[in-house]
């Protein structure tokens, strides 16, 4: 059975919900206390972090997020890879785990936050106009870019890493609060193993296979 912990970023939401539940229960009709209680339970559910074993396979790239694959496409990445690349876009609903995990072991060589809007994550323009955080990972074999993108409900991107830090494959490094999307951008020669509509889990689902010398 999977074990879960609560991310500390969720504590203010949970404690506020509990306080509201108690106040409404004592100062108003106890029946109305069910509303903040339900919100409190949801906050605890949303900020859950599953205890998942860290993989260690240099031949594959794991999903950086839980969710549903929205698109798999080819394009030229001029932000970090600076070459022809493949991009897998993952949509995270409000019911998915919202932490992000490193798809491979590597050092953080690129870190860029871009302020923006909050269009729905499923809209094609969201990656361009919305708030985003791009993290480039590099090791001896490859380079990948992971982009956290805010959505209409996601109003804050959280990153717990920094330039030069080494991340293990499958290690949690950040999260996006309340609905969002995540992009995994890889070199063109990586074989993508997922397709549109597939359900994926961060650090568990293998997204692609790469050639390692």
Written account of the structure:
About 15% of the residues lie in helices and about 40% in strands. The termini are far apart. Helix 1 packs antiparallel against helix 2. The protein has an eight-stranded antiparallel beta sheet with strand order 11-7-8-9-13-5-4-15, with no helix packed on it. Strands 3-16-14 form a three-stranded antiparallel beta sheet, with no helix packed on it. Strands 6-12-10 form a three-stranded antiparallel beta sheet, with no helix packed on it. About 35% of the residues are buried. It has about 210 residues and is α+β, with helices and mostly antiparallel strands. It is elongated. The mean pLDDT is about 90. The longest helix has 17 residues, at about 10-25. The protein has two domains: about 1-50; about 60-210, Distorted Sandwich (Glucose Permease (Domain IIA)). It contains three helices and 16 strands.
Secondary-structure blueprint:
Layout (H helix, E strand, L loop, with lengths): L3 E3 L4 H17 L6 H13 L1 E3 L9 E3 L4 E11 L5 E10 L6 E3 L4 E9 L11 H4 L2 E7 L4 E8 L6 E3 L6 E2 L4 E5 L3 E8 L3 E2 L6 E2 L5 E4 L4
Antiparallel strand pairs: 1-2, 3-16, 4-5, 4-15, 5-13, 6-12, 7-8, 7-11, 8-9, 9-13, 10-12, 14-16
Helix pairs in contact: 1-2
GO biological process, one term: phospholipid biosynthetic process
Organism: Acidaminococcus intestini (strain RyC-MR95)
Keywords: Cell membrane, Decarboxylase, Lipid biosynthesis, Lipid metabolism, Lyase, Membrane, Phospholipid biosynthesis, Phospholipid metabolism, Pyruvate, Transmembrane, Transmembrane helix, Zymogen
């Amino acid at each position: 059975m999977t074990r879960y912990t609560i991310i500390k970023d969720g504590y203010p939401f949970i404690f506020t919900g509990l306080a509201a539940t108690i106040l409404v229960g004592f100062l108003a009709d106890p029946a109305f206390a069910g509303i903040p209680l339900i919100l409190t339970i949801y906050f605890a559910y949303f900020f859950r972090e599953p205890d998942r074993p860290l993989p260690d396979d240099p031949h594959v790239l794991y999903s950086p997020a839980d969710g549903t694959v929205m698109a798999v496409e080819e394009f030229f990445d001029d932000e970090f890879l600076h070459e022809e690349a493949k991009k897998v876009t993952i949509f995270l609903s409000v019911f998915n785990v919202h932490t992000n995990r490193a798809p491979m072991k590597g050092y953080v060589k690129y870190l860029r936050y871009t302020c923006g809007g909050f269009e729905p994550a499923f809209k094609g323009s969201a990656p361009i106009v919305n708030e985003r955080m791009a993290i480039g990972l590099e090791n001896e074999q490859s380079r990948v870019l992971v982009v956290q993108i805010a959505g209409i409900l996601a109003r804050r991107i959280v990153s717990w890493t920094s330039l030069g830090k080494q991340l293990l494959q499958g290690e949690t490094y950040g999260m996006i609060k309340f609905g969002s999307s995540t992009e995994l951008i890889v070199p063109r020669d990586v074989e993508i193993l997922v397709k549109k509509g597939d359900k994926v889990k961060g650090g568990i689902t293998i997204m692609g296979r790469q050639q390692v010398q």
